[in-house]
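Task card 7
Instruction: Convert sequence to structure tokens.
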Amino acid sequence: MKKRIIPILFILCCGAYFSLASFAFAADDAVKGEALFTDSKAFGGQKACSSCHPDGKGLEKVSAKKELRTPAGTAKTIEEAINSCIVKANKGKALEPKSEQMKNVAAYIKSLGKKLEKSKTKGKPKNKDEDEEDEPSLKPSKC
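Output:
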């Protein structure tokens, strides 16, 4: 009996460890992405993403949509939309879609939606700007 329990416990512990580790890496990617998002020199352009999207404003619902409005038109993926903003609004150099920088910035933008969901479940009052624009956009009114 004891011989059967030890391997089962080992497998359960390993599974828990790796699931927590992957969660930590995803959170770490979002932290790195936020640093890039607020760095005016990150993509060789003229300003930071946060210049047009302070605190990620307007990007909270991006990961839930299939098409995104950008400065260059419509994008089908978050990566396309990020590059559109980097090139058109920021006058910077586009990122490779599979690069670490792209993964990190995309992870940060996706994390904004999770923050919005958490604030709604905690009963915080809804921001009146949220109702004004149902469709997510990487095309801010500020830039």
